[in-house]
Amino acid sequence: MSDLELEERFKKRLEEKFGGDISESTIQRRRRLWLTVKPERLVDLMRFLRDEMGFDHLATITGMDLGENLAAFYHTTDQHNIITVRARPPRATPVLPTVRDVFPGTESYERELEDLFGIKIEGLPAGRHYPLPDDFPAGQHPLRKDWKLTDAYPEPAVKEAK
Description:
This protein is α/β, with parallel strands linked by helices. It has one domain (5-161): Beta Polymerase, domain 2 (2-Layer Sandwich). The protein has helices spanning 5-18, 42-53, 107-117, 149-152, 155-161, and strands at residues 22-29, 32-37, 57-65, 70-77, 82-87, 95-97, 120-122. The strands form 2 sheets. It has a 5-stranded mixed β-sheet with strand order 1-2-5-4-3, covered by helices on one side. Strands 6-7 form a two-stranded parallel sheet. It starts with a helix and ends with a helix.
């Protein structure tokens, strides 16, 4: 019996269910599986993880700038194993669906993706910015690799702040 038999079963079950909608799946180590899903299948996969596989807790969502694409990493757990689901919307049109209906506590994480990375979360109700202040310059996303402080605050304002 392989040390990674459980992880192999998780991987096989997800690949059988979602087929070509999963572009990558990797067993990182014992109790850790990473996979990449097409953004339009994200909600279905998250619901399947919760309802059919017992991954009923979304620990966090992490954003990342990968250059050509942006990414959101959804870290789910069944309290013993972790499956991280990556969704990579293109940088030019970064849109992901909300997973609030599957995991109700995700609103602050999804607002972070919008504020810090500029990933539009479809279905997220209008609300305050988080974590940026409401008066932060529109269209500025400080965790993108190409963002500069002077994009949000022109040089004179930066010099005055010193």
